[in-house]
From TrEMBL, chain A:
GTP binds at residues 38-45, 63-67, 85-88, 149-152. InterPro entries: Fe2_transport_prot-B, Fe2_transport_prot_B_C, FeoB_GTPase, G_FEOB_dom, Gate_dom, GTP-bd, P-loop_NTPase. It comes from Hymenobacter wooponensis. The chain crosses the membrane at residues 307-328, 362-386, 406-428, 440-467, 479-500, 538-557, 675-695, 707-726. Its main location: membrane. Residues 31-198 form the FeoB-type G domain. It is found in: Cell inner membrane; Cell membrane. The gene is feoB. Keywords: Cell membrane, GTP-binding, Ion transport, Iron, Iron transport, Magnesium, Membrane, Metal-binding, Nucleotide-binding, Transmembrane, Transmembrane helix, Transport. GO terms for cellular component: plasma membrane. Probable transporter of a GTP-driven Fe(2+) uptake system. The keyword Secreted does not apply. This is Ferrous iron transport protein B.
Length: 727, 87
């Protein structure tokens, strides 16, 4: 098929070609593959959620780390299709790495991932700009259906669209809809269940003088049309599936013909807008031109006010912390008690090493995973609502001037705030920052923001040393202490970014320009799906690490080199008799001696000299090592260590730590120790997953290793300072 | 709508940066070729009308409303707005 010649003509001329193109292979046996594409803020996510509900899977695009969201949609009772949600974009000329995923997918017809057709979402109230992307897709020869979204907003704005006429002009089926309310989804599904043809209409004619070069590229790569060949000429450096030889070939042609990409691209965009204007002239009429977004503007007068705006933003952040810290505690207590109850039930009825593995290894670890679901859910509920309502854009708007001073971008606020939940998705979200330097700095400092995995460490230690006192009636002193730790991480991130801004050199410029969405009510379904998605990611990704480490630790803590444990037991029993311990005290002593002789104890003792100046002992040493896998493991480790060291009495981790005594019989977790440890956890890069994310985002080990060295060093010296000053 | 209140200035061409709050102008050209690609895609085509809608509390960025029928709002930095020359 590739050799078939047809003329890239304007409307009408391409009709016969379209029939040929519609014969695209349908992947026999496989599900129909449909790509969802559209401008940012065109309701693409709402539509994706409407089509797929909770049947969503999050993966990665090959080679890059942009989330690849796919879902299965039941189009008709008999027919299901796989939907790929592509990142929002304004055109097929990628301006960010996110958008590159789209071109990689749509340029490679031979790929088994190539979609059978695309659903293009367009904001009906803003059709001119939304059609730009559509016309490019149409010229690529992709079968398409246009989901004309936000018809309600268009109607409010007095925009009348003649759907039938527009359908004729564009040459594809058009479904008017309101994806947020689910209106039009059924009609869209019916159209999606049909065999769709490539649009017969072409919207842009490639200049004649470019054709010799374009045709060479086209025939060399066996491309199905000229417009795709033009994109090869524009983007050969970025197309991931081209070999170095291929790139060199195009590079030479581009040189030979003196092809200037930037002005050509500008010309194309202008030409496309001209033809879109022609189309809209015949199909769209606007009865009221004054729209002015009265509500949004009035809200913005307050929400982006120079005083109220920042106060409200601070209030929103504070509310987030209170929610995560205070509100989440009720469901967390229930989970805690539930796990403890099951554990004691098993332990009172059964006995043996496997039972110990089950209760002290598996169940303890599982409890450690489940306990954080409420916090993650609440935090992402907030973040999703901020994004859904359009408030996040205002945050960026208000913060840009400040962030820029520190080498960050207004857009860095989003990764930094997301970093409060988890650095891994946050580092990935830094991709929306087009400027390389801004992005690198954002990625580098984001893990300094206190993520949800630190919350368990914070919670346990704050609970030990900060009294549970009400402040101003409704708040809590512990809430304030928690906020202080968050601020500490934030300040460290900002100052580190500022230092990097001074140290790093770059030629690239930093863009800000973005769409400023109107305020909208959040769609709770979208918020709910975000929450489920994040919780799932945590439970299945962080969760399995936690569980595995828990079990490994139980093994390390229960076994030692040769007969070291038996020796320790004998020794402890003799000591116990000599000191006149009761039976229970002897048991506890035996257990603690055994742990110290185990593999885990050896680990801890090995690093103790290095961490003693910070106030840490070998038990904390063990936890520091294991929690490198994920910070929340610290609590699981401490709990395992101490539950091994005590009777199988069901106490919370906090009570166990509080009852720990030092050599002089004083409480071990003094404020100096606890704050030293807290500060260590604010700064330390105690997370393999974050390093892995940085590695993938920066495509090398240089950045993650620098991050590891920098953060560990910062943590070590800050904790040293805290302990030595407070001791 | 008679929003074309901008009079042709003699010496320095005015840019979006120079608009007063609420004032409209018509895009003449884009000064910076690289940034032009982004601006064009976002609908800032020569001949399009833009209105300065608001400024961030610290004076930058700003928001502009694009299109004669007030199609949508963009936010951009003052330095970026300075590359959009008005008629």
């Amino acid at each position: 098929m590739a050799g078939v010649e047809f003329v890239t003509g304007r409307a009408g001329a391409g009709a016969s070609a379209a029939i040929l193109e519609a014969a695209a292979p349908r992947h026999p046996g496989a599900l129909t593959r449909i790509a969802l594409i559209g401008n940012p803020n065109s309701g693409k996510t709402s539509l994706f959620n409407q089509l797929t509900g909770l049947n969503q899977k999050v993966g990665n695009f090959p080679g890059v780390t942009v989330d690849r969201k796919t879902g299965v949609s039941q189009l008709t009772p008999q027919l299901r299709a796989e939907i790929i949600d592509l990142p929002g974009t304004y055109s097929l000329y990628p301006k960010s790495l996110d958008e590159k995923v789209i071109t990689d997918l749509l340029y490679d017809r031979s790929s088994d991932q190539y979609p059978d057709f695309v659903v293009v979402t367009a904001d009906a109230s803003n059709l001119r700009r939304n059609l730009l992307l559509f016309t490019q897709l149409a010229d690529l020869g992709l079968p398409a259906v246009l989901a004309l979204n936000m018809m309600d907003v268009a109607a409010q704005h007095g925009v009348n669209i003649d759907i039938v006429a527009l359908q004729q002009e564009l040459g594809v089926p058009i479904i008017p809809m309101n994806a947020r309310k689910g209106i039009g989804v059924a009609a869209l599904k019916i159209v999606m269940a049909q065999m769709l043809d490539a649009p017969a209409t072409h919207f842009y004619e490639i200049e004649d003088e470019l054709l010799p070069m374009i045709r060479q590229i086209r025939y060399y790569f066996n491309l199905h049309n000229d417009y795709l060949a033009l994109h090869y000429a524009h983007q050969y450096r970025q197309i991931s599936f081209l070999s170095p030889d291929d790139r060199a070939y195009i590079g030479e042609l581009v040189q030979e013909y003196g092809f200037e990409a930037t002005p050509r691209q500008a010309q194309e965009t202008i030409a496309r807008y001209a033809s879109i204007n022609d189309i809209l002239l015949n199909t769209v009429s606007v009865t009221r031109t004054q729209r002015n977004e009265p509500y949004s503007n009035r809200l913005d007068k307050v929400l982006t006010h120079k005083v109220w705006g920042y106060l409200i933003f601070l209030g929103v952040l504070f509310l987030m912390f209170q929610a995560v810290f205070a509100w989440a505690s009720y469901p967390m207590d229930l989970i805690d008690q539930g796990v403890a109850w099951i554990n004691s039930l098993i332990q009172t009825n059964f006995d043996g090493p496997l039972i110990n593995l089950l209760t002290e290894g598996v169940l303890a670890g599982l409890g450690g995973v489940l306990i954080f679901i409420p916090q993650i859910a609440l935090l992402f509920a907030f973040i999703a609502v901020l994004e859904e309502t359009g408030y996040m854009a205002r945050v960026t708007f208000m913060m840009d001037r400040i962030m820029r001073k520190f080498g960050l971008n207004g857009k860095s606020v989003v990764p930094l705030i997301s970093g409060v939940a988890c650095a891994v998705p946050a580092i990935m979200s830094a991709r929306t920052i087009e400027n390389w330097k801004d992005r690198m700095i954002t990625i580098f400092v984001t893990p300094l923001m206190s993520c949800s995995a630190r919350i368990p460490v914070y919670t346990v230690l704050i609970g030990l040393v900060v009294p549970d006192q009400p402040v101003l009636g409704i708040f809590n002193l512990r809430g304030f202490a928690l906020m202080g730790l968050y601020l500490l991480g934030f300040v460290a991130a900002i100052l580190s970014a500022w230092a990097m801004k001074l140290l790093m050199k770059t030629k690239e410029r930093s863009y800000f320009i973005m769409e400023f969405p109107v305020y909208r009510w959040p769609r709770w379904k979208n918020v709910g799906i975000t929450i489920v998605e994040k919780v799932k990611a945590f439970v299945f990704q962080a969760g399995k690490v936690i569980l595995a480490i828990s079990i490994l630790l139980w093994v390390l803590a229960s076994y030692g080199p040769a007969d070291a444990l038996e020796q320790a037991e004998k020794r402890a029993k003799v000591e116990g008799q000599a000191k006149g311990f009761t039976a229970a005290e002897t048991d506890s002593h035996v257990a603690s001696e055994k742990l110290e002789s185990s593999y885990a104890g050896h680990f801890g003792h090995l690093i103790e000299p290095a961490i003693r100046p910070l106030g840490f002992d070998w038990k904390i040493g063990i936890s520091l090592l294991t929690s490198f896998a994920a910070r929340e493991v610290f609590v699981g480790t401490m709990s395992t260590i101490y539950s091994v060291g005590q009777d199988a009495d069901q106490q919370t981790v906090q009570q166990k730590l509080a009852s720990e005594k030092d050599a002089n019989g004083q409480p071990f977790f003094t404020p100096a120790r606890s704050f030293s440890l807290l500060v260590f956890y604010v700064f330390a890069m105690q997370c393999m997953s974050t390093l892995a994310a940085t590695y993938r985002e920066t495509k090398g080990w240089k950045w993650p290793l620098m991050q590891l060295l920098y953060m560990t060093g910062l943590a070590y010296f800050s904790a040293l300072l805290v302990y030595q000053l407070m001791k | 709508m008679s929003t074309r209140s901008t009079t042709a200035s003699p010496a320095m061409p005015r840019s979006v940066k120079d608009l007063r709050l609420g004032e409209s102008g018509t895009i003449c050209c884009l000064k910076d070729p690289e940034m032009a690609l982004k601006l064009l895609e976002m609908g800032c085509i020569p001949g399009t009308q833009v209105r300065l809608n608001s400024r961030a509390p610290l004076g930058c960025p700003i928001t502009v409303v694009v299109g004669e029928s007030e199609d949508y709002t963009l936010s951009l930095r003052v330095s970026e707005a300075a590359t959009i020359i008005l008629k």
